[in-house]
Write a structure and sequence with these properties.
Strand content: 5-15%
Order of helices and strands: EEEEEEHHH
Strand order of the largest sheet: 4-3-2-1-6-5
Radius of gyration: 24 Å
Number of domains: 2
Number of helices: 3
Distance between the termini: 48 Å
Shape: flat
Number of strands: 6
Helix content: 40-55%
Length: 244
Amino acid sequence: MSQNSNLFLSVGKSVKDEYGRIIGKVASFAVTPSGKFDAVFVEQGDGRFLKHSTEHLKIDGAEVILISKLKSAASILCDQIPLIWRKDQALGELSQKKKIAPEIYNELHTAFEGALAQLRSEAQGLTEEITREISRCAEEIKVLNYALIHLELEHEIGKMDDQSYEKAFTIIQDNLKTINIEKSDLELAKNNLSNIMLGDKLGSFDKNVTKPKETSVKSNVYSGPGLPEPPVVVYVKEIGKTGI
């Protein structure tokens, strides 16, 4: 994040994630002795405070946005691993052409191998963390879909008026859309990391990582193993229309 002498003007403003969900509000900033903004303190809705690096903070006009740490870290690793791998390959080619001394080659090659080993370890740990977040998203989608089913049932039997139904329907559908987008973003980050690690293992990298084909966001009712088959199927529809 670029440094700005007016960052303290953000104190008290709401902090949102990349998907528009409110995380909390800016309470204060941590500033280094040299005057550089280092971190932001965010007060969450439950009153707890969290400290976030300003590297993951984006101020867009009146909005304060917290960028996903996982996606940011995955992007950096997807750049660093191929770069160091290619440098090591180029170093080997220079050695074969007798353009560098053997002792210099050995020293640099060892350094590159060590850096790659460290990055592979970080990529593996990050992949596992992203996998856990994908599972969390899947669980939230399941819960929201069941909430949608119960909402439809209560409205269908006349226990909920149209106005309350429409408000609840909009809330659930908006959350389903958001969590599905987040899940797709995490899956893309994980696939890119997997492709990079596979390319490193096979000893080849494409200049551009092939991204998996993105699918449209759907809100189909979840039917997981060990759960009873839902009695109805609910599809996304316009507000005001009923039917299950």
